[in-house]
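Submission sheet (multi-component)
Chains listed below:
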Amino acid sequence: MSMLADFLNDLVADVDGLFLFSPSSSFYERFESVETGLVVVAPQNSVGADQFVELPLEFENVRDRVRFGLEGAMDEDLVDSGDVVACALGTFGDDSDTILRVRADEKMHSGMYDLFTNSRADPSVIRDVFEVAIELGKKGQKGSPVGALFVVGDAGKVMNKSRPLSYNPFEKSHVHVGDPIVNVMLKEFSRLDGAFVISDSGKIVSAYRYLEPGAEGVDIPKGLGARHMAGGAITRDTNATAIVLSESDGLVRAFKGGRLILELDPEDY
Amino acid sequence: MQAQLGQLYNAVPPRIWLALGVLVLGVLLSIVVGAVNRRLLERAGLPSIIEGTGFERLAQGLGTSTIAIVAQLSTYFLIGLTIVVALTVADVGYTDTFWTRLVAFLPRLFVALLILIVGILIGDKVELLVAERLRGVKLPEIGLIPTLAKYSVFYLAILVALSQVRINTLALVVLLGAYAFALVVFASLAFKDMLSSAAAGIYLLLNQPYTIGDQVKLGEQSGIVQEVDMLVTRVETDNREYIIPNRAVFEEGIVRVYD
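Outcome: structure written.
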């Protein structure tokens, strides 16, 4: 099997950096002596690495995970554009079982890292909304699939570019996404038509909103319905982020600046 | 042989025998109480509560544990009491006044020691909790606050313990008063603006005279309300975001703009 070892050598030859995805502390210690280009990508910096990119979600899709790590590292200038890096990550389990070689360049830039860290809303709020959408997509409303549209951040502008379909159930309430009771509430209210509007700090401002953005110049894949169109368009007119759960295919999609940034399958989480 | 034993029995007055019995019984009882105490404290989940506190670590370094110390303390207390009772039964006259005073003093000493240990534990725990709470604040000087909280609790514990054993603590109480007074004065001076903002914020949050998305005008600034929280209101125009303390909303009033 020496060919295999050779291949592995080729794979990691002349790399400019090494990315460890959610390494265990003993695994990390083996690489601690690597001086340049060692980056840890994990939900928490539990190993105390100097160069660290925080994963807001445990992306089940390996491509998404690597892409997020690379984008984060490029954004924080941990690697330069054009660098070739080796990634060690776990595809099937928590242990690192995969090595892959990838070039960090602008083509990798999908705006995924931007979506979490450079949005108007707090990263934790975006993450919480994602979690709610994913859970809603997994379980549905009483077993049947359900769709939902969350507009996060820049709530003042969003409220001015939308109108109420009916009385706002969240009026004079102080509910924030991430509160334990909220998942149940949002699940119940997802029966209502219209969008949820969530402020920068995570306060649920309104449900039942009919969004009225100008839809010209919105670039979203054809075949997606009115909900996605409305969500995509409002992010072009405002600085908000839209997180949409599709009723027909059950995927969670995120829009920013009128562009589809991220697509997740709730069943993977 | 038997006769000799009988003689011995007769030679010692029954009172002494009784005292010896009390002594043996008392010692046994206190050991049992100590063991029961230890079990009870362990059952109550004390080890996990005090885990990581300085006192517990010190005790562990000395090859014992806080619970063992507390249990031992109760044992010693009861043994001491037993000895006193036994001596009283044996009617050792010449020590009368001394012992009665000691008997009165012993429970106090025990309680004082207990208060001291509990105080140290609580102080350590408070330090840990405060430090945990402040961990998100990345400021080197912040390390002073947990230590300050710890020693405040220590000070209180020592004060209570000393007053338990009837040592005059007036000076220390005055010192504590001055410390608390200074704390309150400085805090209210420093947080004056924040407190008035928070009071206004409570009203704004409860009654919501304006809410996210409303067009408002405050003094010279006008824009869309983006966020209302306890201390500030964020108002945004096309390229500016004004962060207005809620105090100002109350002092100057806010204008809602309809067009």
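Remark: Chain B has two domains: 2-166, 194-256.
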